[in-house]
Amino acid sequence: MYDSQTFDHEVSFLAFKEKILRAGVGLYNGYDSDYDPLAVGDVVLGWKVVDGYVPNNPAADINEDGQFAAWSLARKVIKRVINPEIPGKADLKIKQKVIDLVFEDLILKLF
């Protein structure tokens, strides 16, 4: 999950991650990509992921070129971007459970 802010140590987020694990979904640790074929100049991926979370996502930096989220943050249209990633190869029931948890235990509680 990419986040334009950070809440990786908040109790509610720790509980959310625990529910994800209990649903049978692992939380990735490592780098999201060592090589970005769409990189321009020094802009590459390779963000560090800890327990499935990337706080203060560099993609949300104030940069109006590229992602809609970055443009929206730069223009103060929105205050925060949370971008969950659903495991693509997971069973449909697992995917639905993750989506439910993201909304019920995270998004709705934040806003």
Can you describe what's shown?
The protein is built from three helices and four strands. The mean pLDDT is 81. The protein has one domain. Helix 1 runs antiparallel to helix 3. By secondary structure, it is mainly alpha-helical. The strands form two sheets. The chain has a two-stranded antiparallel ribbon. Strands 2-3 form a two-stranded antiparallel sheet.
Tell me the number of helical segments per DSSP (H or I, 4 or more residues long): 3
Order of helices and strands: EHEEHEH
Structural class: mainly alpha
Beta fraction of the residues? 5-15%
What is the mean pLDDT? 81
Number of strands: 4
Alpha-carbon distance between the termini? 17 Å
Q: What spatial order of strands do you see in the largest sheet? A: 1-4
Helix content: 25-40%
Tally of individual domains: 1
Radius of gyration: 15 Å
Shape: globular
Q: How does the major sheet shape up?
A: 2 strands, antiparallel
Question: Which residue ranges are poorly predicted, with pLDDT under 50 across at least 5 consecutive positions?
Answer: none
